[in-house]
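Just scan my protein:

——
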Amino acid sequence: MLSIQSEEVSRPSTWMPALSSHLCFPQRFQRISLGCSCRTSLVIHQLRLFTKETVFLLWNSFNDPLFGWLSDRRFLSSQPRSGAGLSSRDVVLTRVRALGWHGPLLALSFLAFWVPWAPAGLQFLLCLCLYDGFLTLVDLHHHALLADLALSAHDRTHLNFYCSLFSAAGAMSVFASYAFWNKEDFSSFRAFCVVLAAGSGLGFLGATQLLKRRIEATRKDRGCPGLVMDGGVCEEEPLVGGEEAGSITLGQYLRQLAHHQNFLWFVGMDLVQVFHCHFNSNFFPLFLEHLLSDHISLSTGSFLLGISYVAPHLNNLYFLPLCRRWGVYAVVRGLLLLKLSLSLLMLLAGPDHPGLLCFFIASNRVFTEGTCKLLTLVVTDLVDEDLVLNHRKQAASALLFGMVALVTKPGQTFAPLLGTWLLCFYTGHDLFQQPPVTSVGSVQPWPEPPAPAPVQAPTLRQGCFYLLVLVPIICALLQLFTWSQFTLHGRRLRMVKAQRQNLAQIHTLNIKMV
């Protein structure tokens, strides 16, 4: 648009030169004025975009601990006048009811992207914040259920196994969306989104109703077959409402976390893991384009991109049985060592082996995402240790998951920024740089010719290769160091599990005595 306007100014009507000479208003000043107005509008547009990004960044960073605190604060504080209080089964039912409400709202917030109902910029910001908020609520309560329904590592890995299985089935919608996508006409894709949102909402309602009935059925069956999870939802002890329980403020809770050594080492390791996961998801298409575009077709690249969302869930179906046998700590350490070994091998082999390069790009993303999903089991162990160390009446599952997300969110934010900066620093290629436009007030009639492509291509390809292999090496070294300081495994983990089980039994004996 800027170049078209400049051309119109450079070819005025026949009476314009005479008028310009009499009014002493040279044509060049018109060009400068037009250029200033265009720059002003561009600055205003960038400020608006920056404001929206800042609002979403703040909301995305703080909604996890905010919702976690709002969800679990009443489990941590006492209500002396409330009598019996809440049992562990009531806590689980509360989380299931929350999922029954927030799940359909998450589906509606997804659908709101595709129906115009407000100015484009405002609608995008509101829809993004709504979707992220409901997604956070669903994730917090869903992860908290893993810690509240089960206590032993065997039962938790069993639940996580089926979670990964159905997550992989749900991720198949990525491939179905390709059949409806048409950038010229969105009507069929909108219809697909409506069906997908309706199916998701109904799925949330049906699953929560079935789970609610299953949990309520344990009231009549004291044996609790199938849901006996080592002191899980079958216990009837009141966990909130004891007179000896004290109220816990947010400041006190944060001070307790600051003295929780295993929590600090874990979030340091998880911060690097979240950074690596989002680095791979952001630069995966770039690596395919500049490292494998000469060896794979466009459809193959699209298939690899789609399968990268499904494969981590299928990958966990193999690693979760290993976690039951060897423990989550050993499996995660083995995956970190595997990531370091494959990266060093790829660095020594170089970028001229397309088969090995394709395997490394795919496996790097799949194993990294799979490790992120296994770390959920580690957070549930931290929930147990937090309960034992601070003598809580009820585990603050959702709140602890929210605090982990708060500390690790910077990795999600800085992954694309740092990767882009490293690529620009090494190669001089800016991914966000637009083609050069001739300045309106410039005396040069033509822009400078761009550098020839054959000179730039090898440099950019080499930069992508080193970015691909050096980032996993550095991340793996940092993670292996922090993971070696994590002590919640082996004998200590068994001791924490036993103490939490004993606390549940003590509460039950106290009720029977009364």
Summary: The chain has a mean pLDDT of 77. DSSP finds 16 helices and two strands in the chain. The beta strands are 86-87, 238-240.
